[in-house]
Amino acid sequence: MAAGKPGSLINISSQMAHVGGIDRVVYCGARHAIEGFTKAMAIELGGYGIRINTICSTFIRTPLKEPTFSNPNRVKWPTHKIEWGGVGEITDIMGPAGYLASHASAMMTGAHLLIDWAE
Question: How far apart are CA 88 and CA 52, in angstroms?
Answer without folding.
Answer: 23
